[in-house]
Amino acid sequence: MAAFLAKRLAYYVVLLLAAVCLSYLLASLALDPRAYYEGRQPPLSPVSVDHHLTALGVNDHEPLLSRFTSWAGQVAHGDLGQTIDGTPVGEEFGRRIGVSLRLLLLGTVLGTVLGVLAGAWTAIRQYRLSDRLTTVASFVLLSTPVFLLAVLLKIGAIWFNQRTGSDIIKFTGEKSPGVDSGFWTVLKDRSVHLLLPTVSIALGTIASYSRYQRSTMLDVLGSDYLRTAQAKGLTRNAALFKHGLRTALIPMSTYFSYGFLALFTGATFTETIFGWHGMGEWFVSSVGKNDVNSVVAVNVFAAVMVLLSGFLADVLHAALDPRIRNA
Questions:
Q1: Own/partner long-range contacts of 13-18 (Cβ < 8 Å, ≥24 apart)
Q2: Burial class for 254, CB neighbours closer than 10 Å (0-12, 13-18, 19+)
Q3: 124: how many CB neighbours lie within 10 A of its CB?
Q4: Per-residue pLDDT for 317 more than 70?
Q5: How far apart are CA 33 and CA 53, in angstroms?
Q6: In whole angstroms, what is the distance from residue 135 CA to residue 151 CA?
Q7: 142: which of 49, 77, 116, 275 is 20 to 30 A away, CA to CA?
Q8: H or E element: which one contains 193?
Q9: Which residues contact 285 (CB under 8 A, 6 or more apart)?
Q10: What is the mean pLDDT of the segment spanning 146-163?
Q11: 244-300, pLDDT tens digit by residue?
């Protein structure tokens, strides 16, 4: 298994280097940071615009290859350059990734666990009323756009606060202004701010994973090894949990890994609607400003996440399937 994972890791490193190079070249060709400075009021002189662009390493009067080698040399020393507003990209990157992790981690874990359990449960109860109701609810959630679901949750929180005459559910930002003393006070405040984004992320994840898990679980319910396990003395539930669910999780392992990537890089709507300043919001604002260094940083982050997801899928696959470990 170690040799298998080492080969896959080396393969992913090569892919990452290729993705980094392509991200820089595409961002440099597609974005126009000069337009950002030329559109300022009061207008800057051409000499001043060139000075700013050169300081950032994105002056289009310099050959693209020269800009790329300078940028790659900086990155090799841990310097991601500066944003178009003059802030260190590494500093902004560290702050944004922390926000996105706090926003997505709990919702993703809850959605994954509950989605798997719901899918396995409905597969065992196929065509019963509970299975049909869960199926309808899943399709309703899957057909509801993320931004609409978030807005509906926000409206529901406003209605609840008005009916109860309180301000229990927070729906804007990561924390309340001025709440910065006392561990439990801060934890409570952050928890009520995290509630709606977590529900928004978890509902979509549950609906999606439950459909896939139900399908894979149905494939193994009538298998010979389950009947053999029961013939050896295991109860039906024990056989399903020990052998059926484990086998059904093998094809899901890849979907789990890349599903987390999609959530992490596609949480723009959730971050925007609930006022969380994470990676998705940063990417959209950076594209609007023609900020090459920031867009490249987010793209490189996405590439790293893709490759980590692939490696994690390989690890999960090998852990669940002994044929991979013994190959």
A1: 15/303, 15/307, 16/303, 16/304, 16/307
A2: middle
A3: 17
A4: yes
A5: 8
A6: 23
A7: 275
A8: helix 183-221
A9: none
A10: 89
A11: 887 777 777 777 766 766 666 667 788 888 888 888 888 888 998 899 999 999 888
Residues whose CB is less than 8 angstroms from the CB of residue 114 and which lie 6 or more positions away in sequence, other chains included: 202, 206, 210
Give this prediction's pTM: 0.77
Q: Is 82 helix (H, G, I), strand (E, B) or coil?
A: strand
Query: b or e along 162-200 (b: 16 or more beta carbons within 10 Å of the residue's beta carbon)?
Result: eeeeeeebbbeebebeeeeeeeeeeeebbebbbbbbbbb
What DSSP string runs through 171-183? -SSSS-TT--S-H
Return the sign of the alpha-carbon dihedral for residues 20, 22, 24, 26. negative
Q: How far apart are CA 11 and CA 26, in angstroms?
A: 23
Tokens of 310: 């692939």
Taking a C-beta distance cutoff of 8 angstroms, is the pair 259, 136 a contact? no
Q: For the purposes of burial, counting CB atoms within 10 Å of the CB of 40, is it exposed (0-12), middle (13-18) or buried (19 or more)?
A: exposed
